[in-house]
Amino acid sequence: MPSATINVMEAAARKAARGLIRDFGEVENLQVSRKGPADFVTEADRRAERILRAELTKARPEFGFLMEESGATEGEDTRRRWIVDPLDGTTNFLHGIPHFAISIGLEEDGAMVAGVVYEPLRDELFWAEKGVGCYLNRRRLRVSSRRRMSDAVLATGIPFKGRAGKHAFLATVETAIDNTAGIRRLGSAALDLAYVAAGRYDGFWEFGLSPWDVAAGIVLVREAGGFVTDISGRPAAIDGASIVAANDRLHAPVRQMLRDGLEESDGDNARKPRLRETAAPDIRAQ
Ligand code: 2AM
Ligand code: CA
User: Which of 89, 160, 203, 282 could form a cystine bridge with 188, CB 3.0-4.6 A?
Assistant: First the structure.
């Protein structure tokens, strides 16, 4: 049975999700309008955040907040705060791609102790509480049992315009291409972590995420028996520069593989031309 805390998080997520589902339905209509859906989506995002804040405050008036849109608010209870992303996967939402989620984490004394990631379109509620386990709706979750890197499917996030870390990312993706069964980029870090917890992905890595992207997902992976660290192997922090999550067997090898990729390319400007050299014959051969 989910605890009272999880019930509060679930109820808030479901309430905010109703608005998001409605707004997502509108996005398609707006694609063709001259103004486009960007402002509309920003408003949908803010509306969801307002609902989440109101619901969580109603249930736990003394807790603080760290929210994507409105930032940090200290609560009367300085030991506990909600870390909330009202719409993770904003780019997908904006483009009418049906893959986004609401993410709510609970931090206690600086440690993540509960997480809910709700994917409204499939009605998938991923939730976990420290010491209790990780669930998808009512079903207990466990990370995958794959042990061979060559069988592993890893998720990642690709940096985009205006975001740093392109070269580090390319170095890691190159080694992942050489060693794994496949790489996915679905565009919601919160769901990527939930999918690692569910055993759909064998692992996930990304650079430069924000606390609200990962706060809930970190609890999900740990409670499903997986490991989450930064690329150096330190326990994952919500404000870490990198995150590597994987099942218990593959975490160390995945992390090592990514590190090796980074070290091989370390500050090596020669890698750019090298990539071009290998790309050209491949393209011609097709
Ligand atoms: P968002 O949809 O809430 O913006 C995709 O790689 C992941 O990166 C998503 O979880 C996305 O969250 C997040 N993201 C997008 N822009 C970001 C930024 N500037 N800094 C940190 N994370 C970002
Ligand atoms: Ca996000």
Answer: 89
pLDDT tens for each residue of 222-245? 999 999 999 999 999 999 999 999
Task: Give, using CA atoms, the residue closest to atom 12 of ligand 1.
Answer: 88
Determine whether the shortest distance from the Cβ of 196 to ligand 1 is under 6 A. Answer: no
Of the CA atoms within 13 Å of residue 196, those in its CB half-sphere come to 36
User: Given this model, what pLDDT does residue 268 score?
Assistant: 54
Whether pLDDT at 276 is above 50:
no
Distance 270 CA to ligand 2 centre (A): 33
Nearest-angstrom CA–CA distance, 26 and 229: 38
Nearest-5° angle of CA 197, CA 199, CA 203?
75
Residue type, 57: T
Q: Which two tokens stand for residue 8?
A: 């509060």
Of 251, 196, 235, nearest to 111 by C-alpha is 235
Cα dihedral 232→233→235→239 (10° resolution): 20
pTM to 2 decimal places? 0.93
Closest by CA position to 166, among listed 88, 69, 271, 248: 271
What distance in angstroms lies between residue 62's CA and the mean position of ligand 1's atoms?
29
Do 13 and 102 touch, CB atoms closer than 8 A? Answer: yes
**Digit-coded pLDDT (tens) for 202-227:** 999 999 999 999 999 999 999 999 99
Note whether 122 and 129 are within 8 A (CB). Answer: no
**In the predicted model, what is the mean pLDDT of residues 256-280?**
66
Three-class secondary structure of residue 270 per DSSP:
coil
Instruction: Give the separation between CA 228 and CA 236, rounded to whole angstroms.
Output: 6
Residue with tokens 């919601």: 188
